[in-house]
Structure to design on (336 residues):
């Protein structure tokens, strides 16, 4: 296949200390039968040899480009990749995951067949060191933001989605920088609020690795956990402020429900990871002031459990104490 200056796909891959996983990720792209793509590797200040690996990968294939930058987080790296991208569609891929075999050709055919929607979202699976664990499945259908938000399979990850690059440029959509976690959640919420055309595909396109001990989600360091907690609260406040400006918009209610689900999951994670009771009580007070607490009911088992615990202080304190006894997990919150 001839490759033009405007490839069909641009892969944007932030790389941070991923020397043990990146080759597998890149190989999952190189092995695709569809070849009209470019790959942009952004090394985000790695200290483990990832930059040298990126350089080697770029030297071995002209479709692969490499940029090295000081550490600034995944959001900053993705924004830089997006500014360099030339493809019609952008696929944000994590450096420890992989594409499903030969998924690219089918997605290209689908995008052409359905008229180049602004968003194609597709089925994906969780796996641990290559062993499948579970799948999240979509149906083949022309959709829209409201229908997608109502779909139980709807997620706010960026890696199971193909974004039409021109739409991102027209709406000036970028990741909010300086945030260490759920930056993709805010990006997708604002994206869906921008009225994109949507198509959902049943084909499996992405395999998300849950067994990488070096991933940011697996980092047990208390300072890291605390920063994630602070950034999660910041994202929730940002989206709440946005929703307050458009209370009559059709997306207001479904996004508010998703925001409630995210808040509930966040508060429950503080409980699960053993943050001090005082920290959780303080978080609840901040969310109450924002109008985001109590969390909406009927948002899943974790939300219902936390709603029961947090609405009854004696149960909440007893639950926190019991978990610490059973797991021995306790986090000391660093000073700000």
């Amino acid at each position: 296949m001839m490759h033009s200056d405007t490839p069909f796909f641009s892969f944007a891959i932030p790389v941070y200390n991923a020397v043990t996983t990146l080759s597998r990720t890149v190989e999952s792209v190189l092995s695709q039968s569809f070849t009209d793509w470019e790959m942009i590797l952004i090394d985000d200040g790695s200290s483990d040899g990832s930059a040298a690996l990126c350089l080697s990968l770029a030297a071995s294939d002209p479709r692969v480009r490499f940029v090295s930058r000081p550490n600034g987080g995944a959001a900053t790296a993705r924004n830089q990749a997006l500014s360099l991208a030339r493809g019609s569609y952008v696929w944000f891929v994590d450096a420890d995951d992989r594409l499903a075999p030969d998924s690219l050709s089918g997605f290209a055919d689908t995008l052409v067949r359905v008229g180049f929607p602004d968003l194609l979202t597709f089925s994906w699976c969780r796996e641990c060191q290559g062993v499948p664990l579970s799948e999240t499945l979509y149906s083949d259908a022309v959709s829209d933001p409201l229908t997608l938000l109502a779909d139980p399979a709807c997620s706010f990850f960026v890696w199971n989605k193909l974004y039409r690059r021109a739409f991102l440029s027209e709406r000036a959509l970028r990741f909010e920088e300086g945030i260490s976690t759920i930056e993709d959640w805010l990006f997708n919420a604002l994206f869906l609020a921008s009225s994109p055309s949507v198509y959902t595909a049943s084909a499996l396109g992405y395999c998300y690795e849950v067994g990488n001990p070096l991933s940011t989600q697996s980092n047990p360091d208390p300072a890291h956990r605390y920063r994630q907690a602070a950034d999660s609260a910041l994202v929730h406040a940002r989206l709440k402020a946005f929703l307050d400006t458009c209370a009559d918009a059709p997306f207001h209610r479904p996004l508010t429900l998703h925001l409630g689900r995210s808040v509930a999951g966040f508060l429950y994670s503080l409980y699960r990871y053993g943050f001090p009771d005082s920290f959780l009580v303080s978080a609840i007070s901040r969310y109450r002031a924002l109008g985001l607490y109590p969390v909406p009911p009927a948002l899943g088992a974790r939300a219902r459990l936390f709603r029961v615990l947090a609405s009854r202080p004696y149960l909440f304190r007893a639950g926190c104490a019991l978990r610490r006894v059973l797991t021995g997990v306790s986090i000391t919150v660093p000073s700000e």
About this structure: The chain has twelve helices and ten strands. The mean pLDDT is 87.
